[in-house]
Amino acid sequence: MDNNNIVISKNDLLENANRLHDEKYRLVQICATRVGENVLLDYSFGRDYEFVNLKCEIGQNDEIMSISRVFPPAFLYENEMHDLYGIKILHMTTDYEGSFYRTAVKNPFFPLKEG
Fold first, then answer.
1. Which of 29, 56, 75, 115 has a 20 to 30 Å separation from 65 between CA atoms?
2. 85 vs 46: CA distance, rounded Å
């Protein structure tokens, strides 16, 4: 495993975000990508010339903790992931409750299955 790409479980996200914050990393970006029936979340952090990615794959009905209390700008990415992918993110500091983006289709990048 590459030291700059760390695969974690959804339950370890907040602990790892806190550790990186304590080590003086800053949040660079959060990206969601659909992978079959799951979503790959990629949290990127930087410090000086070092870049670290936390990677976590979740299912469509999984919930994940917000890191916005640790990295305040994360609420923007988290609201985007909620609106575009339907990802359930718990305890966001600012939650637009599905109205961050106006889209013709709810969760256009990962529409919820019927039935």
1. 115
2. 25
